[in-house]
Specification:
By secondary structure, the chain is α+β, with helices and mostly antiparallel strands. The chain is 45% helix and 21% strand. It is rod-shaped, with a radius of gyration of 46 Å.
């Protein structure tokens, strides 16, 4: 065959990919030694195959490329004057290896993304579990407080705010006179300023006799802003004042936030 017939027959493509029998490989290499046109055609086919491999392969880290190039450089370079040493099957194998390694790195990336997603999901589940446990704890606490406040021995009173000091304030008192126990719901009190505390007073009206029952901050907190006071006497009224930190021996009347009677029921 002449040069054009060889090019048009497709035998060079088979030669480049290593798909020709050995006797035909020798015939092609003999023709290559005498034809620059055939040599250029072989180079064009090689370039096309490499470009195709690069187009379909995912990006490969520089470290992997360095390893592959170092390995390929160990293969004997193919000169145009000695085509009998050409090992196109080896080169084709390296191209396949490049694609395989690229695929492996792609799968590793996907696996890492999946692992990150699993870790995030587990963290979200842990936070959700903590929220559920906190909600269950609050619910149990609320039920416990309701059990206490609903006992028939308790009498409840609404204690209004002092119109001259805190007209919007209020408190609730639950008294068990037989057990001398009182529960003060201070939800309606504004937050005490820094350096100040609320102090609870048991009052006898005639003559006016205040007895300190202690500080809200020192009382046992049994629920959300609900405090328990033991050894609480049978008062005629209850007052709550805002006092300096540590409390006072007598109520500061100018800071009387709450005052209400607890008799008549």
């Amino acid at each position: 065959m002449n040069t054009n017939e060889i090019i048009e027959s497709g035998i060079l493509e088979l030669y480049v990919t290593g798909a020709l029998p050995q006797d035909e490989i020798e015939e092609v290499e003999t023709a290559l030694q005498t034809s620059n046109e055939l040599q250029q055609e072989v180079e064009r086919i090689e370039h096309s195959l490499i470009s195709l491999a690069e187009a379909v392969a995912p990006p490969i880290p520089a470290m992997v490329w360095s390893y592959i190039l170092a390995s390929i450089s160990k293969v004997k370079q193919i000169g145009v004057t000695d085509y009998k040493t050409t090992n196109w099957a080896a080169i084709t194998g390296w191209a396949a290896a490049i694609l395989a390694i690229a695929g492996i790195f792609w799968m590793l990336t996907q696996n890492n993304d999946l692992q990150d997603s699993i870790v995030n999901t587990e963290a979200e589940n842990e936070i959700l579990q903590q929220q559920i446990e906190s909600t269950n704890s609050q619910l149990a606490e609320t039920n416990q407080v309701l059990e206490v406040l609903r006992t028939k021995e308790l009498k409840s009173y609404t204690l209004p705010g002092n119109q001259a000091v805190a007209p919007e304030a209020y408190a609730k008192a639950y008294l068990n006179n037989d057990a001398n126990v009182a529960y003060i719901d201070a939800k309606g009190l504004p937050k005490a300023p820094r350096g100040k505390v609320y102090q609870v007073w048991s009052l006898i009206v005639e003559p006016l006799t205040p007895t300190s029952m202690g500080l809200l901050s020192d009382a046992e907190l049994i629920g959300n802003d609900i405090y328990e006071f033991k050894n609480f006497p049978n008062p005629e009224a209850i007052g709550i004042t805002l006092e300096p930190e540590g409390g006072s021996k007598t109520p500061t009347l100018s800071q009387l936030y709450i005052l209400g009677g607890v008799t008549g029921q």
